[in-house]
């Protein structure tokens, strides 16, 4: 079964990087202070749309990630709003010092696009897969982390990032995501989760690609008499504490699902809220302290335990723990 098939989410999808490029041009038309900085990857990240529409506001810094962040900090300090595009597997390790010292500590208004994040570069192997980006940027206090779940939400995330005062990271993907929201767009407020499916037995809190997988799992669970709530936690930082507490109180069981290492990601953020506010049974679906092998997205999800079937099993296991079984 393809991701998104069970819940009927596949119609009209397009690549997330194309959605990002279109949205960036849209906000740039409305705000002349927005500029695009590229790490020589514009054709891969979607930044090419900005290069073609506003060449005078597009700057290719080259394959030099530390310099890319340093230049972006200079633009931000001068009153511009730089959107920086690269692969997080290159950008975050190579420029973490600059991100910490020049952007984070200074609280500068820099927006990062992490394209090809998660396992979307699966066939290129572990060196190109960014599975620790939430943890890395989550450790920098001012950063907001946005993880759109489809093309409509990508556009909303870019608009929100452009308006937000402070550093923002937007996670994107190489390929297509199932459509979770309609063509009219989706509700999007930084820090507020979207309930994309109501339910009273168990809550699945997901982000990005795993939101579509969670909806598939919820549809399968419904056929088995289990009423699963699905929250699209598009903002991993700051996480929506009220939505988490409501899920804990109202369903008594929470499963998190993310295309990221379990440690330092969405699951850890949700678990902290649960422990502090309203402890309930929890299970965590994600990558377990390992680097992944080369393979297709579907193959990797199945092999490493975050496919639809694994999510269904995690929800059932969490329900058993909730009931003391």
3D architecture notes:
The chain is of the alpha/beta class. It has two domains: 16-171, Thiamin diphosphate (ThDP)-binding fold, Pyr/PP domains (Rossmann fold, 3-Layer(aba) Sandwich); 194-322, 3-Layer(aba) Sandwich (Rossmann fold). Helix content is 41%, strand content 18%. The protein has 13 helices and twelve strands. α1 (16-30) packs parallel to α8 (151-163) and α4 (65-77) packs parallel to α6 (96-104). The model has no long low-confidence stretch (mean pLDDT 94).
The amount of beta strand, in percent, is: 15-25%
What overall geometry do the principal axes of the alpha carbons give? Answer: globular
Mean pLDDT: 94
Enumerate how many helices there are, as a single number. 13
In the sheet with the most strands, the strands line up as 2-1-3-4-6-5-10
CATH architect. name of the largest domain: 3-Layer(aba) Sandwich
Biggest sheet statistics: 7 strands, mixed
Task: Summarize it.
Helices cover 41% and strands 18% of the residues. It is of the alpha/beta class and 325 residues long. The protein folds into two domains: 16-171, Thiamin diphosphate (ThDP)-binding fold, Pyr/PP domains (Rossmann fold, 3-Layer(aba) Sandwich), CATH 3.40.50; 194-322, Rossmann fold.
């Amino acid at each position: 079964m393809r991701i998104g098939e069970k819940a009927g989410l596949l119609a009209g999808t397009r690549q997330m990087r194309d959605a990002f490029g279109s949205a960036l041009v849209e906000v740039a038309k409305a705000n002349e202070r927005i500029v695009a900085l590229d790490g020589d990857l514009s054709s891969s990240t979607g930044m090419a749309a900005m290069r073609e529409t506003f060449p005078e506001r597009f700057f290719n810094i080259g394959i030099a990630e530390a310099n890319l962040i340093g230049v972006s900090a200079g633009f931000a300090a001068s009153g511009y709003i730089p959107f920086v595009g690269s692969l997080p597997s290159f950008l975050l390790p190579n420029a973490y010092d600059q991100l910490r010292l020049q952007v984070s500590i200074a609280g500068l208004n820099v927006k990062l696009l992490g394209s090809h994040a998660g396992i979307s570069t699966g066939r290129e192997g572990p060196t190109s897969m960014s599975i620790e980006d939430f943890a890395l940027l989550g450790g920098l206090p001012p950063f907001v982390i946005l993880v759109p779940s489809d093309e409509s939400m990508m556009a909303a995330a870019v608009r929100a990032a452009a308006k937000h005062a402070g550093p923002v990271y937007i996670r994107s993907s190489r390929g297509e995501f199932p459509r979770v929201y309609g063509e009219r767009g989706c509700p999007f407020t930084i820090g507020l989760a979207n309930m994309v499916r109501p339910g009273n037995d168990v809550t699945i809190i997901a982000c990005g690609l795993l939101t579509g997988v969670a909806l598939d799992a919820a549809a399968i669970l419904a056929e088995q008499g289990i009423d699963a709530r699905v929250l699209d936690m598009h903002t991993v930082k700051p996480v929506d504490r009220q939505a988490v507490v409501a899920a804990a109180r109202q369903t008594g069981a929470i499963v998190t699902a993310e295309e990221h290492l379990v440690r330092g990601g969405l699951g850890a953020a949700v678990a902290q809220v649960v422990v502090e506010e309203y402890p309930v049974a929890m299970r965590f679906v994600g990558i377990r302290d390992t680097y992944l092998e080369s393979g297709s997205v579907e193959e990797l999800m199945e092999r490493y335990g975050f496919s639809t079937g694994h999510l269904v099993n995690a929800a059932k296991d969490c329900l058993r723990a909730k009931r003391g079984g």
